[in-house]
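retry 2 of 3: previous attempt timed out while embedding zinc ion. Reduced batch size to 1 and resubmitted. Inputs unchanged:
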Amino acid sequence: MLMDYHLHTRFSFDGEQSLEALCTRAQALGVTHMAVTDHIDGPTHYGLLDIQDPTAYRQAVDAARKAYPALTIHRGLELGYRVDYWDETLRRIEETEADYLLGSLHLVEGLDPYEPAYFAGRSRREAYAAYLDALEDALDHLLPRVQTVAHLDYVSKFSPHPPLRYEDFPRQLDRILQCIIDSPAALELNTSGYRRAPQGLPGDDILIRYRELGGRRVALGSDAHRESDVATHYGKALASLRRAGFSAVCLYGPQGWQEVSLDALTLPPEEICFPGKL
Ligand SMILES: [Zn+2]
Ligand SMILES: [Zn+2]
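retry 2 succeeded.
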């Protein structure tokens, strides 16, 4: 058994893989449960960062479910929260008949921390504080609806500074983590962090605090935008979870989240072949 609950296709503006290629790759890696989570981010200076044809998306996932019966495929969306696009976001959920929602924050004061401009003229602390303030607002809207909070410390992913640490904003992070724990949503361990840095999103310290506060629901996702990133760095992610005291991750089904032992997961071959990387 293996899950990947954060995956993009060409239905996203930045996705490089077809849904068929994604499913073929996922199946070859031993993935059994997955969510296609293409972007709903609204209009930006890059253009409209949304699924352009919700009907085609709906039909494509239906077709994939038929073509890959061994895979449990959720028709998901990654909701990039923004106050000025929330009504439209809610419409997209209905139009696509999505059954799995990731809650994300990609824009802070109109800027994506992906862009160097976000960090220009701000100290590390100012850049991270602005992100966390916006995240608290976003979670007020996202948490009642989403299955998972994605990449909690997204601001760290492209940051020129050392990543966000729990000790930087302990009271605010406690508030944020407690809100997630009190909701039905899981916290994502996003393995895309390992593609740029030696830690996932979030890192060990925030995972440890999440667990200390009572958090138990963790969802694994690679945030792959291309085939070669599907379900990657899972060995490192599982090692991080074990260091934080977790012995299980979550599987999403009709009854909501249920725990599955880390020992029950079958990692993709490259992670097995290179245990030294753990
Ligand atoms: Zn994202
Ligand atoms: Zn994503």
